[in-house]
């Protein structure tokens, strides 16, 4: 369990009882996670009952719209598309398309990154990439309380490679500069330039301490976060769905009990941020 996130979630829940819906009561991982969430006072979990996932999602939608519930976590036993079907009903007015990020925290909790989009948009165009960057900066800021510094990833750094994908990222960078001038970012850049300042300098990129990595497509993002999680000794918490009026978060079907509890803590922080 991520200690810092849990402590903050407990403080929030003790002040304003955050009610989170769960749909998969028969899954052993979900059942155990709910026990921990209750025992440690991270949130107030509720089980939505029904004959099938569609019926449960319909009930959850009503509970979220009415304000009876504050958030939803689901996906341990069904696909992301089912979760997205519900999420589309809660898209913010200033958002064209939702996206999904993963909070990556080292096992010693000394380093953190946000990887995006790793869950929703398969092949975002330049406008969608720019919006993903903006939403991910918001997510990182309210979760970690640090200034987001975004690396727009590609197989090319500052024009070193040619091709449609690199050009798409280049165009996204132009849009970010125009539409979101306050964002601290650079790109297009290769991953090594994003994590090593000396390499960034040698390739003509800004040598920031990047903490938000924006991947050019879903293939790269999904594979990337799983590589870091499995081989890099990092916790991967998410997908955290971005651009919604109510927190609705998806679980990987390979999730652990710890993953569910961690996502519940993040969901509490999202509820608190949306109330502000």
SSE topology:
Layout: H1 3-16, E1 19-22, H2 28-39, E2 44-47, H3 53-66, E3 71-74, H4 80-87, E4 99-106, E5 112-116, H5 126-144, E6 149-153, H6 164-179, E7 184-189, H7 191-195, H8 197-202, E8 212-214, H9 218-231, E9 234-242, E10 248-250, H10 257-275
Parallel strand pairs: 1-2, 1-3, 3-10, 5-8, 6-7, 6-8
Antiparallel strand pairs: 4-5, 4-9
Please give a structural write-up.
The chain has 276 residues and is an alpha/beta fold. It folds into 2 domains: 1-91 and 244-276, 3-Layer(aba) Sandwich (Rossmann fold); 94-243, Rossmann fold (3-Layer(aba) Sandwich). The chain contains 10 helices and 10 strands. The chain has helices at 3-16, 28-39, 53-66, 80-87, 126-144, 164-179, 191-195, 197-202, 218-231, 257-275; strands at residues 19-22, 44-47, 71-74, 99-106, 112-116, 149-153, 184-189, 212-214, 234-242, 248-250. The strands form 2 sheets. Strands 7-6-8-5-4-9 form a 6-stranded mixed sheet, sandwiched between helices. α2 packs across α10 (257-275) and α5 crosses α6 (164-179). The protein is globular. The two termini are 26 Å apart. The relative contact order is 0.20.
Number of strands: 10
CATH architecture of the largest domain: 3-Layer(aba) Sandwich
Average pLDDT reading? 91
Q: Low-confidence segments, ≥5 residues, pLDDT <50?
A: none
What is the CATH topology descriptor of the largest domain? Rossmann fold
| Overall 3D shape | globular
Which structural class do the helices and strands define?
Answer: alpha/beta
Q: Tell me the β content.
A: 15-25%
The main sheet comes to: 6 strands, mixed
Give the C-level CATH assignment of the largest domain.
Answer: Alpha Beta
Q: Report the end-to-end length measured between terminal Cα atoms.
A: 26 Å
The succession of helices and strands, N to C, reads HEHEHEHEEHEHEHHEHEEH
What percent of the residues sit in helical stretches (DSSP H or I)? 40-55%
């Amino acid at each position: 369990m991520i200690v810092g996130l849990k402590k903050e979630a407990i403080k929030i829940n003790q002040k304003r009882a955050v009610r989170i819906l769960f749909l998969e009561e028969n899954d052993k991982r979900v059942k155990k996670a709910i026990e921990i969430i209750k025992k440690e006072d991270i949130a107030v979990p509720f089980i939505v009952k029904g004959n099938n996932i569609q019926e449960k999602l319909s009930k959850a939608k009503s509970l979220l719209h009415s304000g009876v519930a504050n958030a939803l976590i689901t996906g341990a036993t069904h696909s992301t598309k089912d979760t997205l079907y519900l999420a589309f009903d809660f898209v913010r007015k200033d958002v064209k398309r939702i996206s999904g990020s993963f909070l990556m925290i080292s096992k010693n909790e000394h380093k953190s990154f946000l990887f995006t989009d790793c869950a929703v948009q398969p092949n975002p165009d330049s406008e969608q990439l720019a919006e993903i960057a903006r939403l991910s900066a918001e997510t990182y800021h309210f979760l970690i309380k640090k200034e987001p510094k975004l690396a727009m990833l590609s197989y090319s750094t500052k024009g070193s490679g040619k091709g449609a994908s690199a050009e798409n990222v280049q165009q996204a960078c132009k849009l970010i500069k125009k539409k979101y001038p306050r964002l601290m970012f650079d790109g297009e850049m290769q991953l090594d330039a994003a994590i090593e300042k000396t390499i960034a300098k040698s390739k003509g990129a800004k040598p920031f301490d990047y903490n938000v990595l924006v991947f050019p497509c879903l293939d790269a993002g999904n594979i990337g976060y799983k590589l870091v999680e499995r081989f890099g000794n990092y916790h991967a918490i998410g997908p955290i769905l971005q651009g919604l009026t109510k927190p609705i978060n998806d679980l990987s079907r390979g999730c652990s009990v710890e993953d569910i509890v961690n996502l519940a803590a993040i969901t509490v922080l999202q509820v608190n941020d949306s109330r502000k």
